[in-house]
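A reminder before we start the practical. When you read a complex entry, don't treat the lines as separate problems. The point of joint prediction is that each chain is placed relative to the others, so the output describes one connected object in space. Small molecules and nucleic acid strands, if listed, are placed in the same frame. In the example below there are two entries. Take a minute to note the order of the lines before looking further.
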Amino acid sequence: MRIMTSYLRVQKPLPFINFKSITRAFSVAATKSPPSKAIIYSTHGEPNAVTKLVSVPGIEVKENEVCVKMLAAPINPSDINRIQGVYPVRPEPPAVGGYEGVGEVYSVGSAVHSFSPGDWVIPSPPSFGTWQTYIVEDHNVWHKVDKGVPMEYAATITVNPLTALLMLEDCITLNSGDTIVQNGATSMVGQCVIQIAKSRGIRNINIIRDSANPSPGRAGVDEVKERLKNLGADEVFTENELEVKNVKSLLGDIPEPVLGFNCVGGNAASLVLKFLRHGGTMVTYGGMSKKPVTVSTSSFIFKELSLRGFWLQKWLGKDKAEESRGMIDRLLALVKDGKLKYKMELAPFEDFNTALDKALGKHGSQPKQVIKF
Amino acid sequence: MRIMTSYLRVQKPLPFINFKSITRAFSVAATKSPPSKAIIYSTHGEPNAVTKLVSVPGIEVKENEVCVKMLAAPINPSDINRIQGVYPVRPEPPAVGGYEGVGEVYSVGSAVHSFSPGDWVIPSPPSFGTWQTYIVEDHNVWHKVDKGVPMEYAATITVNPLTALLMLEDCITLNSGDTIVQNGATSMVGQCVIQIAKSRGIRNINIIRDSANPSPGRAGVDEVKERLKNLGADEVFTENELEVKNVKSLLGDIPEPVLGFNCVGGNAASLVLKFLRHGGTMVTYGGMSKKPVTVSTSSFIFKELSLRGFWLQKWLGKDKAEESRGMIDRLLALVKDGKLKYKMELAPFEDFNTALDKALGKHGSQPKQVIKF
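Here is the predicted structure of the whole assembly.
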C-alpha cells in the first residue's frame, strides 16, 4: 500500500495533530526539507471552493528518503474527481491535490545512492499529493527520467500516455496493419493513441465531436481533423458524418477495426461499436458525455463483440511498478524522438486558480493545464 | 460447410427443378427412402402464414448415407426467427423448418457400418430441416445417442442444454463454490444452467419476471420459485424484488457472482450487472425483452466488468463437432440420471399448427413444443 503511505506522508506537514511528527520532533536532528507550499483540500467539494494554498514546514529527510523539488504537475480530470469525492480510489481529506508530476532531486538520505541532487524524477507508480513544491518520500517511490525531454512531458507521461500505450498493448494482440477506432480522439489519451498506433503501423479511425455548438475557443472541425491527421490519424469523422446507414462504407481500403476505445459513452460509443469488425473488442476508459454505453443483443450474440474497461490505477495496483517504468521510458523516448506530442499549457504556480478554472472547462476547451512550480 | 450441404440435401425432394435429382433419376437404382412429409416455407414471413405441410417422394440412399425416420423435433425460437428471415444464419427458402431433433435409423448405405437400423441418432452439429418424417444424409451428419432417455430429451439436447453447458464451461473457469447469476431463469437454458451448476457445486442466483401482468396460464411467482429451487436454484428473485439500493445485501452468505447470463436485456440485464462482483463477466445469449443492454461507464472502469456474447451456432462452426458430441453424451447422461429435466410438451405432427401457435406465444406461456412424428 505504498500509495496510502505516500498519502499519509504528504499529509504530515499539515497543521493537524500527527503523533508521528511529534515523535519525530524529538528525534536526532537530520537533514530537513525546505518549507513547502501545497494546494490542499480539507473537505470534498467543488475544487474552486475547497482548495487552498498553504505553507508547510520542512520535515526530516530520513536515510532511505529523497527530497524532491517539484518542477511541474498537471491538473487531470481524475484529480478533480478526487477532490470532488466522486473518484472510487482517493485520499481522505485533508489531502494535497495532484497524482503525477516531475521534480528535481534536492537532497537524499544517507543510505540513498541511486539518486543525486539535480536528477529528474517522477513518482512511479504515481502518488497522491504532487501539487506541492517539495516532497519527501522513500527512494522506491521515485523513478529517474531523462532530462532531455521538456518538463511538462515528464510531468504528464503516466496518467494519459501510459493509458494509451497499455490499451494498445494489454487488451488484445494488435499486429501491424490492424485497425483501431476511437472516440474522444482529441483528448490527451486520444492523441497518444493516434501517435503510438502510427509508430506501430496500426491504422486508426477517429471520431470527434460535431462542430454544432462548439465550445468557445474550440478549433473548427477542419482544423481539428488536420491536426489529428498530422499526428498520424488515418481517418477522422465527426459524429454527424457517421449518421449513415453503413459506417463501414466510409473505410475505403482500411480493414475493419478489431479494437475500439471509448471515453465518451452514449452515441459516440455506439459509433465505435458500429465500426468494429465481427469479434471485435471495445475498451471503455472514460465517460465524458456522462451517458452510459448501450449495446444491442445482436452485437453480443451475432457480431460477437466483447466489451471491457481499462483503469490505469487498477492496473498499476497489480504489482506492475517495474513494468510501468519500462513503458514510461519507452514513451519518453518517443517524446524525445518527436514521435509523441500533445497540447499543454504551463501555468505558473501562483496562477493555480486560473489553471484550475481552465481545467474545469470554465474557459471553454483548453489545452491540458500543467502547473509549473 | 456441412450445414449448407445438409440444407441443399433436404431441399432436393421439393418439387423445384433440380438438375442433380434429374441426373440421379437416370442412375442405377438403389435403396430409396420412404416418401416423406415435411413442413416447408417457400418465402420468409410469419410462420403461421408461410409454413405448409408437403409430401415429398423418396430419394436414393447412397453408399455413405443413412436414412433416418424422425421421431421428434422441437420448435425453438431460433427456428421461428429463421422462418421470419431475421436470423443471421439461415437457409434461403424454399426450405424445410427445424434445426435439431432425434430419429431412428431406417436404412443405411452399403458402405455404412457405424449405424444399424433401430439406432437413435441426432444430427450433430444440428442441421437445417429436421421437421420432416424421413431424412437422408451422409453418415458423418449423425451421432448415435443412448436410447435410455425419453425421445423428447434426445430431440432437444443440443440447442438449449448445450448452450447452458458451454456458457458454464467455455466463458471463464468456474470452480466449485463460485456463484453465477442469470435472468430469464425459467427459460429452457435457464433451467439447464441451474441444474448443471448444481451438479458442479456452483451457487446460482436467479432472476425471473414479475408477477404483474402474468401471461395467461403462467404459474404464480411462488410456484415458479419453488419449481426452480427444486431444480437446484440457491436464490430466485423477481425483478421487482431487486428494486433495492444494494442487491448484494440479499445474497446472505452466498459469494458475489463472478459470471452472469443474460437472455433478456433491458432492466433484467442491468440487474445481472448489479449482482456481479468486481471483475465479473456477463454473457448475453438472448434478448427476450427486445431491449438493449445498458452499462454505466463506471461498471467498465471501476468495477472492471466484461461483457460478451455466446452463440451456439457460431461455436459449433469452429470445428467443434467432436467436442460437442462428447458434451451431448454428458448431458444425456445427466438426463438419464434424473439430474437434468425441463418442461416440454409432445405435439403430434398432425397438430403442428397448434404447436406452432403455442411456440409463438399465442396461448400464453407454454412448455417447449416438441413435434412427435
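Discuss with your neighbour: The interface with chain B takes residues 88, 265, 284-287, 290, 292-311, 314 of chain A (CB under 8 Å). What might explain this?
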